[in-house]
Amino acid sequence: VADAQVREAISLAVLPDGSVVWVEYGGCAIRRATTAGVVQALLGNGTCANAGDGGPALGATTMNPHGVAVA
Question: If we measure between CA atoms, which residue out of 32, 67, 20, 27 comes closest to residue 44?
Fold first, then answer.
């Protein structure tokens, strides 16, 4: 995680397994850091736009996501 670059993280949530999920407003993505230090993209490919409906979440673009919640 020490090498991960986070762009404008504005919201975060802690999952039951201890992983942290956050919204990158400027990076137009939702990412997760595991307790082992692995950073994964959950949504968005890093491009700020509105495209990709119906396709895989990692291939989609998003326009400045605002929040994340854990149920």
Answer: 27
